[in-house]
Each structure stands twice: as C-alpha cells, then as structure tokens.
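Blinded run. Sample ID left blank on purpose so nobody reads anything into the name before looking at the predicted structure. Input follows.
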Amino acid sequence: MYDEDDLSVIDPDADLDSPLDPLDALDAEPEETKPNPDAMLALLESGATPQKTIAARAFCEIQDERAIPHLIRLLTDACPLVRVSAAYALGRNPSPDAVEPLIAQLNRDWNGYVRKGVVWALGNCRDRRALAPLLDALKTDISAVRLWAASGLAQMAELGYDAVVAAVPPVIEALIQDPVAAVRSNCAWSLGQLCRELPSNVVYAGAIDALIQVLEEDEDMGVREDAKASLLRVGDPRGLQLIEAMQQEELI
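Blinded prediction complete.
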C-alpha cells in the first residue's frame, strides 16, 4: 500500500490499477448519490491534501465546467493522489484548455499512476494536439500507460482523416510488437475503431493485414478475439472470409 502523501517509485512492470478504477461504474450511479458541486468546488481550493483529493475525485462523477481551472492547477500538486484524481476528473470534464497542461504533466510526471490518468484524460479530450503524446506513450511508457494510450488513440477516429492516418501505423506496430497481451488487445480494438473511418486505401489495407496476422498468429486468445471482433466490426471481406474459414476448421 502506498502512502497517500508520498507514493514510492512505481514498479515499471506493475499493472497500476488506480484507486479510481474502473471509472465506467461511475456512470451508473443515481443522480441523488453524487456529491454537491458547490461544496466540492470549495474543497478544490483547500490547502489540505485530503480535501483536495476528495474534491477532485468528486468531479470524476460530476460534470461542471467551473471545476476545470481548479483541476488544471491540481495537475501539478505535490501529492500524486491529488494529481491522478485531477487527471481523471479532467477526463470526465474534457476541455480544450486542459489539453496542453495534461501534455505537459505527461511529459514530466514520474508517477505511473498519474501518467496513466493523464493518458486516459487526453484520449477523452478528443483533441488533435493529444495525438503525438499518445503515440509517444504507446511506444515508450510502462505497460499500464501503453494500455490506455492504445485505447485512447481510438478517439482519433472522431478527428478526421489526417488524424486517423497518423494514428494507424504506430498502432499497427504496437499490435504486432508489444510484449504485453493486454496492450496488443487494446491496439486491436482501436484499429477496428479507426478503420471504420478510412476509405479502402493502403493505410486501411495495412491495418486489415495486421489484424489478420494477429488473428492467425498471436499466442494470446484474448488478443485474437479482439482482432476478430475488429474485423467483424469493420466488415472487411478478407477478414470475414478468414473468420468463416477458421470457424469451419474450429480454429476459433
């Protein structure tokens, strides 16, 4: 267990399950159980670490644009739990104003929990400026951060052709080469999202080739299943034909 005020150096091979994971469960909470925004806004300005942490976590559940400047400021707080909470909260309250501060914190933060939260937030911002740092994180960071960078890159599908074309080749590379199966699985899922926004060109063909290769060759069943799901989602004839043939031979 890490101390709240002074987290020790993170093992680079750790899974880094955050105290805030999984965030998806927050969407299902009834409105009446959510914190009061005005009270939490006041706590964001507190000088005490526990109050700042509670308030930042509250904005992982509630959306209020008034919190954004305070959350941006807390990205550089001395306490890692405050920083990671602020990052997740900015992911729930995405703003163009937060993109550059998030990128800056990703580049300087020593703490893997924080970088993981920042990468998640950058993906949710759906901003072209996030593309390069997400690609760099996918290539160079620890496994837990690479995992979320891979899924965050799927959001580039909403930013138009140029962003998709820039994202696809590095995701293909990680899909084939990353040593961690969970990262490869997220890359397979992201390619399915990105390919849906591409015409039938050389970039699209390369992505389909990679998904087919993974479906046939990857040693991990989960990665193969995600590759299969992406091929089905895209509806590419080559992929569908291969899936049908492998099903007939009971290979999948």
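Unblinding after everyone has recorded impressions. Residues 161-177 form the longest helix (17 residues).
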